[in-house]
Design brief:
The protein is an all-alpha fold and 248 residues long. The chain is built from nine helices and no strands.
Amino acid sequence: MTSDDKRSQEELGQESHSKIDVERNTEMPSLNAKVLLFVFIGIIAVFVMTMIVNGYIFRYTTEIKTGYYLSILVSNFLFLMVIIVTKLVKKLSWASLGWNKVKFIKSLKVVFKVWAIIWIAHIIYMLVIFAMGITPPENALTELLEKPNLLMLLANVLLIAVVAPIIEETLFRGLLFAGLRNYFGIWTAIVISAVIFSSLHFELIGFFPRFALGVGLGYLYVKSGSIYPSIGLHSLNNLIAVLIISTV
């Protein structure tokens, strides 16, 4: 083989690699400003629509727990629509939304470490709150989880510890945080996404614990490059909360 032939093969190889890179970039576009704006508009729209729908739900629902279940289903459905519409309109792959494979055992160890730190921070926060003479008010979610029968307990676990973490992590870490990171850096994006995540729960006393959880979830996403560990921590946190409130 002559040197000219070798050079031609190298050039062909470089061209093929370039084509592959272009195809990958087309298949997995970055979460640019347009995507981020689209997500922000979607979150605001969900907030407005949820408030309107909740008004009708609690006006025409006599059983309060039924109303809460319907409200949770509606909010999760609307958030899911934001994810799907954003993905389709902006032509995003699931991988670009954080659905990437991870090493299970290694990730599980990190999940438990972050979870332990978050719960220690939560306990310290609650001790400070009680020391200040502040008693957290019973919220709607607590009323929903108290004294359930077996069917209700299973429904609570499914909705709060399975469905909600999957949808919320895809939206808040896979889309919102990933978009913010491109413009504000990792830690600023983690803090902003955690603030928005906690604020949307509309509970002042519980803001800090949920903010700490949001920071931990963002850290897991950065460390692993996947939302699977974030979903795992979110599910674990919600499952323990459901079981504790259900058994008290």
